[in-house]
Structures are given as C-alpha cells and as structure tokens.
Amino acid sequence: MATTMNNPASLPQTIASAIGGGKSRKEVVRILVNSGINAPQAESMVNYAVSTHKAEIRKGAAKQLGVGILLVLVGIVITAATYSMARHGGMYVVAYGPVVFGAISILRGLFRFVFA
Q1: Which residues have CB under 8 Å from 79's CB, separation 6+?
Q2: Long-range contacts of residues 43-46, Cβ cutoff 8 Å, at least 24 apart
Q3: In the prediction, which pLDDT does 76 show?
Q4: pLDDT tens-digit profile of 19-75?
Q5: Which residues contact 98 (CB under 8 A, 6 or more apart)?
Q6: Is-above-0.70 flag for pTM?
Q7: Which pLDDT value is given to residue 38?
Q8: Crossing angle for the helix pair 54-85 and 11-20, nearest 10 degrees?
Q9: What are the φ/ψ torsions at residue 21 (nearest 5 degrees)?
C-alpha cells in the first residue's frame, strides 16, 4: 500500500484489494495512520473504498475460496493415495491439515464474498 500513496486516485482500489486479500478494516486503517493520515480520515477512506470497490473485495474473496478448495482437494488426494497404497492393514496418512486449513479458508472467503 505504501507505493500507492504517490497516486491518490488508486488508493481506494488498493484499500479494497487489501481488504479483499484478507486484511481487516482495522489493519488497513492502522497502515494508513502509520503512513501519516489522521485516524478519522483513514477510517473515512476505508469506508469509502469498501462501499465503492466491492468487485475488488469479491475478487480477493473468490481467490481465498479457490485456495481453500485446492487445499481441501490436496488433503483428500493425499489421504486417498496413501490409503490405496496401504496393503491389507498397512499404514496410511490422513492429511487432515490441508483439509482443516482449506475449510477455514473457504469459510473466510464465503464470509467476505457474502458481506462485501
């Protein structure tokens, strides 16, 4: 976000991209305040960016959904592959890590997509 401070016209889109990418509104306001903008103005800028650049936020949410789905699929494929290689009671890997983190990512993406 620091590079966009030179181009104020693209700042709302950059703020919306940051929120769509997973940063909270408070984090973005804090970054703006740290860059020299006063807190009420930073809050106003974030609110404006969220209300006018919903497509940018939804784009980030869709990306987060895609990553979550990919992680879930990777976990399922690893589990299925090692299970099929296990011979008659052999050992196999249950890859629950990617499934859990993928599910969390899917939920976060859905939340951001619905409430954008």
Answers
A1: 92, 93, 94, 95
A2: 45/11, 45/12, 45/15, 46/15, 46/19
A3: 97
A4: 777 788 888 888 888 888 888 888 888 888 877 777 878 888 899 999 999 999 999
A5: 71, 72, 74, 75, 78
A6: no
A7: 87
A8: 30
A9: -80, 0
| Helix H or strand E segment including 56 | helix 54-85
C-beta separation of 110 from 68 below 8 A = no
Q: How far apart are CA 36 and CA 21, in angstroms?
A: 23
Q: What are phi and psi of 115, to 5 degrees?
A: -95, 15
Question: What is the C-alpha R_g of the chain?
Answer: 20
Half-sphere exposure (Cβ direction) of 88: Cα atoms closer than 13 Å: 0
- Mean pLDDT score of the chain, rounded to an integer? 84
Residue with tokens 């859905």: 110
Closest residue by Cα to residue 109 from 65, 53, 60, 67: 65
How confident is the model at residue 95, as a pLDDT?
Answer: 95
Looking at this protein, which amino acid is placed at residue 19? I
Distance CA 21, CA 88 (A): 45
What integer pLDDT is reported at residue 39 of this predicted model? 87
